[in-house]
Amino acid sequence: MSTPYQDAQRVGQDAVRAVILDRAISLLVAEGPAALTVRRIAAEIGSSTKVLYTMFGGKEGLLDALYREGFARLRRAQEQVPCGSDPLEYLTELGRAYRERAVAEPAYYRVMFEQPVPGFRPSAEALALADGAFGASVAAVEACMAAGVFRPGDALEVSNLFWAATHGAVSLELAGHFASAEAGARYEALMAALGRAFGAGS
After folding, report:
1. CATH number 1.10.357.10 is the correct assignment for the domain at 69-197
2. Which of 30, 42, 103, 150 is most solvent-facing, going by the fewest CB within 10 Å?
3. HTH tetR-type domain: from which residue to which, for each copy (predicted)?
4. Model-level pTM greater than 0.85?
């Protein structure tokens, strides 16, 4: 029987990287930071430790890769949202994509925002990637202002306020404070309220 590493090798380098990252984040969530060692991950996927050192340079590089991967997946999810002709609906859809990505992969969400490994600090490259993941939201707010849907203002600041509010709702949901049956409707109500708060007539 082949190992996960061998299966991924047949597909390519990107598949190998994904297998390593997904196994690493599973260990982090299931057993905590102590389980996140190069030797343990290599044993789990059936590779040599050299493979991980070559790709990530060690544990710190692996953590940085997990952080960057979370934001890369968020950016890809938002890039799949069709822009359409209604800028407010587009902004709302971006918010839905944000929640859906967090709920689908809560482990990555925690690495992105909850610092589950004490002492870890993302690299400058990783932080730049994180900032870039919200470019679509800023552009959507700018479009709302240009169309007269939102009153004029600082699009980056308004986007950050949307993010702060929706991040709070998602974090409460992932922590179990909002039951899944009600979390979706509450999130929709929150986004609608935010849209009204910045509306041109408010």
Report:
1. yes
2. 30
3. 14-74
4. yes
- The residue extents of the domains of the chain are 1-57, 69-197
Rounded distance between C-alpha atoms, residue 27 and residue 12, angstroms: 23
- Coil, helix or strand for 122? coil
For domain 1-57, the CATH superfamily is Homeodomain-like (1.10.10.60)
Is the model's pLDDT at 201 over the cut of 80? no
Of 137, 154, 136, residue with least CA distance to 145:
154
Query: What Rg value do the Cα atoms of the chain yield, rounded?
Result: 19
Angle at 98 between CA 180 and CA 142, to 5 degrees: 135
Checking if the pLDDT of 202 tops 80, the result is no
Closest CA to 97 of 52, 133, 48, 54: 133
pLDDT digits (tens, 9 = 90+) for 131-163: 888 899 999 999 999 999 999 999 999 999 999
pLDDT tens readout for residues 105-120: 998 998 898 888 888 8
- The residue among 166, 158, 156, 164 whose CA lies nearest residue 98 is 166
Q: How far apart are CA 165 and CA 187, in angstroms?
A: 10
Which residues neighbour 155 within 8 Å (Cβ) at sequence distance 6 or greater? 138, 141, 142, 145
